[in-house]
Design brief:
Length: about 375
């Protein structure tokens, strides 16, 4: 097999099913669900839940979720938006009055109603073959019995430990951080590579979510505990916010790009940015063998930047239609001429190119918003 693009990974083939994650044990959890008679939805839910235990540096029960679900019998693609809404006690004016010029990344201000548990329950109930208890069993088992932490995750875990430790030492009113140290660093340090980590608290939480179809998280004991902790540590999230939330099914948006149909979740997700960038790239010609040029990477970067520039942060589904219309208008009016000029600049020498990991030094690679 010929590998046309530089990569350190090999192509993987499977006969009956495949699960792809950044954590091998989570992929195995999804495969086990398929072997038990579960379908792709069951495997996705099991994998997502397992990742909250196996890779907590990037995943959490209190996170959001988006999903595209293909119904083979109906030949229909569905979208699920499980991004949480802002608590009723917080708004943009309060954030500005707190002294923030932009939304902070830590503390209670950026916290929204968690949507992931509702997504697990909704997808399992409507389109899964197994029960939510069966789908969450691997995550519950890993939380109870533990697992060896991988080197990369151990490094990220320790980085978080050092950062939060610095915040706890230098800032006041950090009571909201104490449970993190109790839960993720019970021995006074982040788990090292190969060390077995387990969590009885996470086991019990996942059991309650599994046994109640996630209702306990929104209207039961877990909701009460979230409300109590939020009130005690200066948060804005209340049980009323949790009670009034559930994920929603949405109609995916798509464009035709060359010989492909590309589908994404509509705003408030960021998928529309990828579609806008592809629409802009339709105006460029690439090498017949499909290999990008160094300048081509810059054009892709330019188009991505133009698509994302001026993007408002919206969390109300009622605003989606207006947001889509405004984003398209901004891309066409404000930046279209620059994209045309990019053709002329193809032959110009660039000082910086993107590497395969998005850092300066390589010819081309993946593009991330923080690079723009």
């Amino acid at each position: 097999m010929e590998y046309r693009y530089p990569s350190r990974r090999e192509a993987i083939f499977a006969k009956n099913g495949m699960v792809c994650t950044s954590q091998p044990l989570a992929a195995q959890a999804g495969l086990d669900i398929l072997k038990q008679g579960g379908n792709a939805v069951d495997a996705a839910v099991a994998t997502a839940a397992a990742m909250t235990v196996l890779e907590p540096t990037s995943n959490g029960i209190g996170g959001d979720a988006f999903a595209l679900v293909w119904l083979e019998r109906k030949k229909e693609l569905l979208g699920l938006n499980a991004s949480g809404k802002t608590p009723r006690l917080i708004n943009a004016d309060k954030v500005r009055k707190s002294g923030c010029k932009e939304m902070p990344v830590r503390g209670w201000l950026p916290v929204m109603v968690p949507g992931a548990p509702s997504a697990w329950a909704e997808m399992t109930e409507k389109y899964g073959c197994l029960t939510l208890e069966e789908n969450l069993e691997p995550a519950i088992r890993y939380a109870k019995e533990g697992y060896p932490v991988t080197p990369v995750i151990a490094g990220l875990w320790n980085a978080a430990f050092e950062l939060f430790g610095k915040i706890r030492r230098e800032e006041q009113d950090t009571d909201w951080l104490e449970p993190w140290f109790h839960h993720f660093a019970p021995e006074g340090h982040a788990p090292k590579a190969g060390e077995i980590w387990k969590s009885g608290d996470m086991e019990e939480t996942l059991k309650k979510i599994a046994g109640t179809g996630a209702r306990d998280f929104y209207i039961g004991e877990l909701a009460c505990k979230i409300d109590e902790f939020s009130r005690r540590t200066g948060g804005y999230l209340r049980k009323e916010d949790l009670e009034g939330y559930w994920c929603e099914w949405v109609k995916p948006i798509h464009i035709g790009y060359r010989d492909y149909e590309v589908w994404e979740i509509p705003p408030n997700g960021d998928g529309i940015i990828a579609l806008m960038a592809l629409n802009i790239l339709k105006n460029f010609e690439f090498e017949s063998d499909g290999l990008p040029q160094a300048a081509g990477g810059n054009e892709a970067c330019l188009c991505r930047r133009h698509a994302v520039c001026g993007r408002p942060e919206v969390h109300d589904s009622d605003c989606r239609r207006a947001v889509k219309r405004q984003l398209w208008t901004n891309a066409k009016r404000s930046h279209w001429q620059d994209c045309r000029n990019a053709k002329r600049r193809r032959s110009e020498k660039r000082r910086h190119h993107l590497s395969l990991h998005g850092r300066p030094g390589g010819e081309y690679g993946f593009l991330y918003p923080e690079q723009f």
